[in-house]
Amino acid sequence: MFSFFKKKKIVAHIKLNGVIGNVGRFKQGLDFSGQEEIIEKAFSLKKAKAVAITINSPGGSPVQSHLIYSFIREQAKKNKMKVLVFAEDVAASGGYLIACAGDEIYANSSSIIGSIGVIYSSFGFTELIKKIGVERRVHTAGKNKSSLDPFQDEKKEDIERLKNIQLDLHKDFIDVVEESRGSKLKKNQIELFSGEFWSGSKAKELGLVDGIGNANKILKEKFGEDVVIKKFEKSKGWLSKKLSSSTNQMDQFANILEERSIWQRYGLSLIHI
After folding, report:
1. For the segment 222-242, what is each residue's pLDDT rounded down to a tens digit?
2. CATH code of the domain in which 32 resides
3. Which residues contact 242 (CB under 8 A, 6 or more apart)?
4. Residue 81 falls within a domain, yes or no?
5. In-domain check, residue 125
6. Which pTM does this prediction carry?
7. Which structural domain, as residue segments, surrounds residue 244?
8. Pick from 3, 50, 9, 14: which is nearest to 223 by CA?
9. Which pLDDT does position 112 carry in this prediction?
């Protein structure tokens, strides 16, 4: 007879979308400073049973990825709150690192998951500047200050130094994944930390995610059909809009190309059904 007075369960919901770190001069991707307040507010929601995080990101800055991951775990511990993460199109590289902040990770069967590795890419212009008659002049204090200059020939010692840095970053990434997923990982089946990525279905077999399903479906299963999902999103300020609208066409085109190239690593602009 008191069913009318049954309180609905509340879940806070955060959406993280885009490339992690700077995307261009006037376009900011996902970063810690931009998400800190939203994350803190979500975890401070009174009477919330959990925090749900939907992520759609191909990765980006390793530092910003780790800062967001660490802050989510810190808030979860502080507020004794369970974290459920839901991958949309892609949770790869830094996007998957952030996903590891979840006590449970879910994905669509067609999501792209993984890419646990570190990449550096650039272009070499040494032959081009020779052909057009341009001379490169570089003066440094510190013999390694001009390392990996795209207008100079690559040096073996520069590449070795870069690879050592990549190995350090890769180890940090692996440590996060192993701490988060633990015994769920099926290491014997495939090389999980090679930088390879998989569909959501395969990722579940490998232990990279816990289940298949979207946020709406899983939250209703866990907290009831009448669960109240309180959304926390960062609004775009007028200054950000103004700067974005005033960016010249060449800057906009460069930003689009840079961002698109990151998404294309996972075939997201090439795979269609």
Report:
1. 999 999 999 998 765 544 555
2. 3.90.226.10
3. none
4. yes
5. no
6. 0.83
7. 8-120+176-264
8. 9
9. 96
